[in-house]
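Lab notebook, bench 4. The sequencing result for the construct came back, and we need a structural model before the next group meeting so we can plan mutations. Quick request posted to the team channel:

Model the 3D structure of this chain.
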Amino acid sequence: MRRLPLAGCLLIIALALPLELRGEQAPSRVVEIRSYNLKPGTRDRFHQTFLKEALPMLRRWKVDVVSYGPSQHDQDSYFLMRGFEGVAERQKSEDAFYGSDEWKQGPRERILADIDSYTTIVVSLDAATIKGLRQAGGVNSMANQASASNDLDLLTRLNADYITSVQKGDVTRFDEILADDFLCSMADGSLIDRKKFLEVTAQPVTIRNLQAHDVNIRLMGDMAIVHAATSFTTADGRPATGRYTDVWARRGGRWVAVSAHVTRK
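Done. Here's the predicted structure in token form:
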């Protein structure tokens, strides 16, 4: 049986809302429903790139993001709904957005790399229907969208703090951001607890120019996993690289690092 495209499913859901939610008034806005078929296994990365880079840019460009998120019908679909005053305004807005240097030199390549194909449907919807779509539960609610974006911003800063603290041997900052039960798998294969980690941090730093690259923050509710590559200079002046994986947890309303795994070569 031929599967109905995600965009078509979303349109049917929108038009099937009860009249008391849709209202009887004339359509008030044009809504673009874009359904993305992503390359297998890339949806988590696509979602994080969208939250961290594309969504803040859309907001800076005053684009009305009605809803977005992973589809529940398979593992490789994603959708984005945007609202406009009319069809002409939509075209003008998207021409400006996708033609901008900020988009071309920013997230464009990372976003397109994960997309296999997409479908676009443009419909006119009344204010009540759009309000219902905005208030849909889960990751698509506006409150959760803002919260996820804020969490990613905070975790990005915390990750930068972590790397800076390693380079500077900043015991005070680590004492603030490490959980009481923090554990770290060291590059030599040893596993140390929070107390030992702070003792190691207090010792003279033997590497220089430590930097993180290709940082990928995967947000999972009150947990987050950070994957990244590193580059640095050894004590004898040789360039070297490594990787790390950190796990963060939201506890008592704040994010703390609960574990780390470091490799160097």
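Residues 15-26, 137-142 have pLDDT under 50 and may be disordered.
Will bring this to the meeting.
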